[in-house]
Amino acid sequence: MPRPASSSSEVRPPLTVDRAGGERDDETLLGRLRAEPGTRVLAIRRDAAPLRDGRLALVSTTEVDDDVVTEWAFLGRTPDRTAVVLAALSDGAPGEIVPDAEWSPLRAAGGDLPAGEAELLTTAVALAGWLRDAAFCPACGSATELRHAGWSRHCPVCGREHFPRTDPAVIVLVTSATSDDRILLGANAAWGGDRYSCFAGFAEAGESLEDAVAREVGEEAGVRLRDIAYRGSQAWPYPRSLMLGFRAVVVDDAEAQADGDEIVEVRWFDRDEIGAALRGEGSAMLPGRASIARRLIDDWYRGVA
């Protein structure tokens, strides 16, 4: 029976989920949880999840048609020990599989969800992507078998064990050499040149994170850096990144120049211009609220040291 839509006045407590990784060794876990009526399911279609009243819409296992689920996985337990599982849906799965819900991608929804739900959605999107893309052993090409409640794959031919891959990437907010009230942002060609963000890129083999920061900003914006300092991290499953955030100071503001390939324009912004952009005013667009890039910019604007 379809679940009725929740009332807009209903107050739902924040949802937090403990990964409960110790339970993954039980090879019967997923089968048992799928048979338990109290188990809650977070359905993921590509990078989108169902929402009701701006919150994640979790359903029972009986409400999800197994024919449109490509893989199941254990996500963890809520504080009252309710199990939460992932249903990774096929791309063609109908939205109506979750009644009275609106589907929204992580990029759009993550910044508006409560912290626990945003973390759960990020985990689910990352794991669903790996389950979808890593069905075959990269060493010998054989079909793999799912293990550890969806968190590993075993190759029955060559015996290798495979786990969800995470690639380290750096992202940095750079401030002026002469004034902490100015930051340098870049417009990426992939965004059409009208959205400005921090500079970012993947760490290369054998490279420290600090060296990756200096190299990426030098390549994209032409500037040298000093005072590189770590600020925080964020899992970002596009496609499977761990974004490591930094702040740094430019050595010489006059060196700033876009590479003309990946970055089509670099621009200095003062604090008033950033404030206007954060309020949605002016012509410059900033990263979405779900991203660490937005957090780096917002922290700088608010004077967070």
From TrEMBL:
The keyword NAD applies. It is an enzyme of class 3 (hydrolase). One of its GO terms (molecular function) is NADH pyrophosphatase activity. Keywords: Hydrolase, Magnesium, Metal-binding, NAD. One of its GO terms (biological process) is NAD+ catabolic process. Residues 1-10 have a biased composition (Polar residues). It catalyses: a 5'-end NAD(+)-phospho-ribonucleoside in mRNA + H2O = a 5'-end phospho-adenosine-phospho-ribonucleoside in mRNA + beta-nicotinamide D-ribonucleotide + 2 H(+). One of its GO terms (cellular component) is cytosol. The keyword NAD applies. Residues 164-291 form the Nudix hydrolase domain. InterPro entries: NAD-cap_RNA_hydrolase_NudC, NADH_PPase-like_N, NudC-like_C, NUDIX_hydrolase-like_dom_sf, NUDIX_hydrolase_CS, NUDIX_hydrolase_dom, Znr_NADH_PPase. It holds the Pfam family Zn_ribbon_NUD. Residues 1-23 are annotated as: Disordered. Its EC number is 3.6.1.22. Gene3D superfamilies: 3.90.79.20, Nucleoside Triphosphate Pyrophosphohydrolase. Its cofactor is Zn(2+); Mg(2+). PANTHER family: NAD-CAPPED RNA HYDROLASE NUDT12 (PTHR42904:SF6), NUDIX HYDROLASE, NUDC SUBFAMILY (PTHR42904). Belongs to the Nudix hydrolase family. NudC subfamily. NCBIfam families: PRK00241.1. This is NAD(+) diphosphatase. The lineage of its organism: Bacteria, Bacillati, Actinomycetota, Actinomycetes, Micrococcales.
